[in-house]
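DATA SHEET
Item: assembly model
Revision: 1
Owner: S.N.
Input lines:
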Amino acid sequence: MNEIRRFREGDWGALWPLLRATFDAGETYAFAPGSTEAEIRAAWIEAPAATYVACDDDARVVGTYYIKPNQPGLGSHVCNCGYVVAADAQGRGVAAAMCEHSQREALALGFRAMQFNLVVVTNERAIRLWRRLGFDVIGTLPGAFRHVREGYVDALVMYKTLH
Amino acid sequence: MNEIRRFREGDWGALWPLLRATFDAGETYAFAPGSTEAEIRAAWIEAPAATYVACDDDARVVGTYYIKPNQPGLGSHVCNCGYVVAADAQGRGVAAAMCEHSQREALALGFRAMQFNLVVVTNERAIRLWRRLGFDVIGTLPGAFRHVREGYVDALVMYKTLH
């Protein structure tokens, strides 16, 4: 991986297929499989405070994340992030690099903590990674995620105070 | 209390001062104190799947709650509710009646569980009530709420499977 930088308008053409493939799989994110391009663009680009892309040495987009307040007003010092890595770029440390980058960005943007609201228990690689990067499991939400193949599965709330 | 029913457009004049007083207190909800009428209307009436009011024997609005999916798509079988009771109607069972009503409505609307994302630990009366009504504490989010008088305080995630 070469760099992680702010999303630019010209990135969307590369980003949308990557996001669509992840959400259509229905294994890790709540976004409904079959969500439209406009819906996903609103959720990933327009609603967040900032969106980033990770590029490999050929300047190809191999990952992306967003950062946004997890709650309004009196809860807005806690941010939420979502990360997606291209299927053919898994296992190269892209998610770890983006999560570490996002923690620095979160602090720079004035956030004091980071919360993941729905970490699907079958997503074991992600849970291992978030733990390694200092996130605590706050608790387990029973049956809170409807996995497309496995049906209702538990999901974790994870949290890290930033400093 | 006389009835709990769906919000009607003519209720807003009574509802807004009640909501404003609660949110401006800055003790229980994340909505920023000083939020505009349009912002609160969007959050309490427009965004949710449904909004309700509780009326006393004189048909005065003494409470309100909303119900909405807590996540999109594959998490949309879990709902989130928020409840507000008028200051001069506390201690009369309005919150309990609304929460029980909301659980029946949630089932009727197709939800399978109910989640509270940010129950402020200083809101002891609410925590006692939600526990009594069958909600479990999933975990504690450290410093996730900026209480207007007490500063950063913890908040609970609470959850109940409905049946």
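QC remark: Chain A touches chain B at residues 26, 29-33, 35, 43, 71-78, 112-113, 115, 117-118, 137-148, 152, 155, 157, 159, 161 (CB under 8 Å).
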